Amino acid sequence: MVQTLHPERNLSHSPLFQAMFVLQNNEQVTLSLPDITSTPLPIASQIAKFDLTMTLREREGPSRARSKYNTDLFEETTIQRLADITCR
Q1: Which residues contact 17 (CB under 8 A, 6 or more apart)?
Q2: Which of 15, 29, 58, 83 has CB atoms 3.0–4.6 Å from 25's, for a disulfide?
Q3: Does some domain include residue 57?
Q4: Residue 74: is it exposed, middle or buried by C-beta count within 10 angstroms (0-12/13-18/19+)?
Protein backbone atom coordinates (compact mmCIF):
# COMPACT_ATOMS: atom_id res chain seq x y z
CA MET A 1 0.00 0.00 0.00
CA VAL A 2 2.83 2.38 0.82
CA GLN A 3 4.36 1.84 -2.62
CA THR A 4 0.99 2.44 -4.30
CA LEU A 5 -0.20 5.42 -2.23
CA HIS A 6 3.16 7.17 -1.79
CA PRO A 7 2.18 8.87 1.49
CA GLU A 8 4.39 11.64 2.83
CA ARG A 9 7.07 9.83 4.84
CA ASN A 10 8.21 10.83 8.29
CA LEU A 11 10.43 8.62 10.45
CA SER A 12 8.55 9.70 13.59
CA HIS A 13 5.43 7.65 12.77
CA SER A 14 3.99 4.86 10.64
CA PRO A 15 3.19 6.00 7.07
CA LEU A 16 -0.43 4.74 6.89
CA PHE A 17 -1.93 5.06 10.38
CA GLN A 18 -0.86 5.95 13.89
CA ALA A 19 -3.61 4.34 15.99
CA MET A 20 -4.86 0.76 16.01
CA PHE A 21 -7.85 -0.83 17.76
CA VAL A 22 -7.87 -4.61 18.24
CA LEU A 23 -11.03 -6.45 19.30
CA GLN A 24 -10.41 -10.00 20.48
CA ASN A 25 -13.81 -11.63 20.85
CA ASN A 26 -13.15 -15.08 19.44
CA GLU A 27 -13.18 -18.26 21.48
CA GLN A 28 -9.71 -19.48 22.33
CA VAL A 29 -9.22 -23.09 21.25
CA THR A 30 -6.36 -25.53 21.65
CA LEU A 31 -4.69 -26.61 18.43
CA SER A 32 -4.68 -30.40 18.08
CA LEU A 33 -2.54 -32.04 15.42
CA PRO A 34 -1.42 -35.68 15.23
CA ASP A 35 2.12 -36.27 16.55
CA ILE A 36 2.65 -32.57 17.28
CA THR A 37 2.62 -30.85 20.65
CA SER A 38 2.17 -27.10 20.77
CA THR A 39 2.41 -24.63 23.62
CA PRO A 40 1.22 -21.02 23.39
CA LEU A 41 3.90 -18.51 24.29
CA PRO A 42 3.21 -15.02 25.56
CA ILE A 43 4.49 -12.14 23.47
CA ALA A 44 6.40 -9.80 25.74
CA SER A 45 6.80 -6.69 23.62
CA GLN A 46 6.92 -3.42 25.50
CA ILE A 47 7.67 -1.28 22.45
CA ALA A 48 4.78 0.71 21.00
CA LYS A 49 4.76 0.21 17.22
CA PHE A 50 2.15 2.94 16.74
CA ASP A 51 1.29 6.11 18.63
CA LEU A 52 -1.60 4.22 20.25
CA THR A 53 -2.67 0.57 20.20
CA MET A 54 -5.76 -0.33 22.22
CA THR A 55 -6.66 -4.01 22.60
CA LEU A 56 -10.08 -4.99 23.98
CA ARG A 57 -10.48 -8.60 25.05
CA GLU A 58 -14.09 -9.77 25.47
CA ARG A 59 -14.47 -12.85 27.64
CA GLU A 60 -16.99 -14.04 30.18
CA GLY A 61 -17.05 -11.45 32.90
CA PRO A 62 -15.74 -7.92 32.48
CA SER A 63 -13.95 -6.90 29.29
CA ARG A 64 -10.27 -6.07 29.58
CA ALA A 65 -8.46 -3.30 27.76
CA ARG A 66 -4.72 -3.13 27.26
CA SER A 67 -2.88 -0.21 25.74
CA LYS A 68 0.52 0.52 24.32
CA TYR A 69 1.22 4.14 23.59
CA ASN A 70 3.87 6.70 22.87
CA THR A 71 4.64 8.31 26.22
CA ASP A 72 5.86 11.44 24.44
CA LEU A 73 2.31 11.99 23.16
CA PHE A 74 -0.01 10.63 25.87
CA GLU A 75 -0.18 10.78 29.65
CA GLU A 76 -1.04 7.63 31.59
CA THR A 77 -4.21 9.24 33.00
CA THR A 78 -5.49 9.97 29.48
CA ILE A 79 -4.97 6.36 28.39
CA GLN A 80 -6.64 5.10 31.59
CA ARG A 81 -9.73 7.23 30.91
CA LEU A 82 -9.87 5.90 27.35
CA ALA A 83 -9.62 2.31 28.61
CA ASP A 84 -12.38 2.94 31.19
CA ILE A 85 -14.71 4.28 28.49
CA THR A 86 -13.90 1.38 26.14
CA CYS A 87 -14.68 -1.29 28.77
CA ARG A 88 -18.13 0.05 29.67
Answers
A1: 50
A2: 58
A3: yes
A4: middle
Is position 37 within any domain?
no
Query: CB neighbours of 51 closer than 8 A, spacing ≥ 6?
Result: 13, 18, 19, 69, 70, 73, 74
In the predicted structure, residue 88 carries a pLDDT above the cut 70: no
| pLDDT the model gives residue 86 | 67
Segment 16-68, tens digit of pLDDT? 889 999 888 887 777 788 998 888 788 777 777 889 999 888 877 777 788 88
- Residue 49: closest CA among 22, 87, 88, 85: 22
Domain count, the chain: 1
Asked if the structure places residue 7 within a domain, the reply is no
